[in-house]
């Protein structure tokens, strides 16, 4: 059940009332029962998968410090987790039976074994087993509390990826105070605004570009790719706002996943601000171990760590060639930044800091958008059409309206152009005020006017019937 769905939002107050009237020591049981109920309601058989996976991980973690061959237990557990992840994400069915999908990225594919949130809680399980093996944490002794760590409804679908040392202790005695309720409510409303007013209105614009790339001019395709990057940001950060806000209503603090990444002045800074918990996981369990083992090779170790990390990240997102190119592009960006650090510092000293920073922000955004062309394209054929369209003459000799705005708006008539213009206004105003909005919420105060404006825009311009699912649920 999506966090922005009407049934969930209607049932949430009832759950909160039950939670509040439950003794503090037993509130985690209420959260566990609701989490399992939510998973089972959305996909009944997915409940069996998450329970079995959690039981396996719990048992393996308990066995690691007790048995004679802990490394063997860890390796076998990780291999089995990896095999399960590949099967559940990439095995598809057709009339001839089961097959392993490798050829196309299938941006919106769904497999018969696909399980809601499986990729995210599998990564959590892998990190948990590694941490237990190296003694960074103690294995959880309560199997039901560990099951709650795996299935907690607020973050189950698409993260944030939480460290067990941070999240598990919070389940012992969750006790929200008034500041938690104010903070949680405002984050929920902000998430709904970003999803229903911004991301959902951007979705058909992006679909028109990627679905008709062969007939569009270069500037239209360029705008569509940039708008997809904005859509992806608004959509996923909206989900994280909802997850963080909902968890906070119950006294649970989840990790931040975004830190204004669109204002990054380098690709490395971008990845420190985008999907922070996932990047932290890849950095902790892949990048650092690779660099450490190859440390005698100097800069080559860093390049190898970057490349392997992004290759695995690309495979995690999808097995298609487009995701491979996406991952290699970011590996190339970061490798260049690593090798040119001193050169870029020299450039920065020659220009005014504001000018250099604005140029760096613009270049970073363009580079990220170019890689997202492959991330969004359903296959290499579509990506090729998009690249060919980028080489065409701007507007295709049809003028600004017919050649550029009309394809984005879905037609050249006045109402469509007005709606597109208002969407651009909403996005620019929000991005200009984004840091201030979060700063006000983080003070712990309740800002009624800000809340009223967001609710008004949601009710008047929000998309309620269509495009309810979040993009990152497929990953």
Could you explain the architecture of this structure?
This protein is mainly alpha-helical and about 475 residues long. Among the domains are: about 5-95 and about 100-175, no CATH class; about 265-365, no CATH class. Helix content is about 70%, strand content about 0%. The chain is built from 19 helices and 2 strands. Strands 1-2 form a two-stranded antiparallel ribbon. A hairpin with a 2-residue loop joins strand 1 (about 90-95) and strand 2 (about 95-100). It is globular and about 70 Å long. The two termini are about 15 Å apart. The relative contact order is 0.11.
DSSP, total strands? 2
Gross geometry? globular
Structural class: mainly alpha
User: Which range does the strand content fall in?
Assistant: under 5%
Rg, alpha carbons: 23 Å
Along the chain, the helix and strand elements come as HHHHEEHHHHHHHHHHHHHHH
């Amino acid at each position: 059940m999506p966090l922005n769905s009407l049934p969930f939002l209607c049932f949430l107050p009832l759950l909160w009332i039950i939670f509040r009237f439950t003794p503090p020591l037993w509130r985690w049981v209420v959260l566990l029962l609701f989490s399992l109920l939510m998973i089972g309601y959305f996909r009944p058989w997915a409940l069996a998968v998450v329970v079995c996976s959690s039981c396996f991980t719990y048992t393996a973690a308990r066995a690691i410090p007790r048995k004679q061959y802990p490394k063997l237990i860890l390796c076998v557990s990780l291999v089995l987790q990896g095999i399960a992840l590949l099967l559940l994400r990439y095995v598809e069915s057709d009339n001839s039976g089961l097959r392993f999908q490798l050829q196309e990225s299938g941006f919106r594919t769904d497999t018969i074994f696909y399980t809601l949130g499986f990729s995210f809680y599998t990564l959590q399980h892998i990190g948990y087993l590694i941490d237990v093996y190296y003694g960074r944490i103690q294995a959880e002794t309560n199997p039901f509390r560990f099951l709650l760590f795996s299935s907690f409804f607020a973050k189950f679908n698409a993260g944030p990826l939480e460290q067990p040392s941070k999240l598990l202790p919070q389940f012992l005695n969750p006790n929200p105070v008034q500041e938690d309720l104010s903070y949680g409510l405002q984050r929920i409303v902000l998430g709904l605004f970003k999803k229903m007013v911004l991301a959902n209105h951007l979705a058909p614009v992006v679909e028109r570009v990627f679905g008709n790339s062969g007939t569009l001019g270069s500037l239209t395709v360029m705008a569509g790719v940039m708008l997809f990057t904005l859509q992806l940001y608004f959509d996923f950060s909206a989900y994280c706002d909802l997850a963080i806000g909902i968890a906070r209503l119950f006294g649970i603090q989840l990790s931040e996943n975004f830190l204004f990444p669109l204002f990054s002045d380098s690709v490395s800074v971008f990845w420190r601000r985008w999907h922070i918990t996932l990047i932290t996981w890849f950095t902790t369990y892949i990048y650092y171990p690779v660099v450490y083992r190859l440390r005698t090779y100097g800069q080559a170790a860093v390049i190898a760590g970057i490349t392997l990390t992004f290759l695995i990240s690309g495979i995690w997102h999808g097995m298609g060639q487009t995701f491979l190119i996406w991952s290699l592009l970011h590996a190339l960006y970061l490798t260049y930044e690593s090798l040119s650090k001193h050169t870029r510092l020299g450039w920065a000293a020659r220009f005014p800091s504001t000018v250099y920073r604005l140029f760096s922000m613009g270049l970073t955004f363009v580079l990220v958008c170019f890689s997202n062309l492959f991330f969004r394209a359903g296959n290499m054929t579509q990506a090729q059409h998009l690249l060919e369209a980028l080489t065409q003459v701007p507007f295709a000799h049809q003028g600004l309206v017919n050649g550029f705005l009309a394809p984005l708006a879905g037609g050249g008539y006045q109402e469509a152009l007005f709606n597109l213009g208002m969407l651009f206004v909403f996005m620019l105003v929000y991005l200009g005020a984004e840091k201030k909005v979060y700063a006000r919420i983080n003070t712990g105060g309740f800002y009624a006017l800000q809340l009223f404006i967001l609710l008004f825009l949601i009710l008047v311009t929000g998309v309620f019937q269509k495009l309810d699912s979040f993009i990152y649920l497929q990953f």
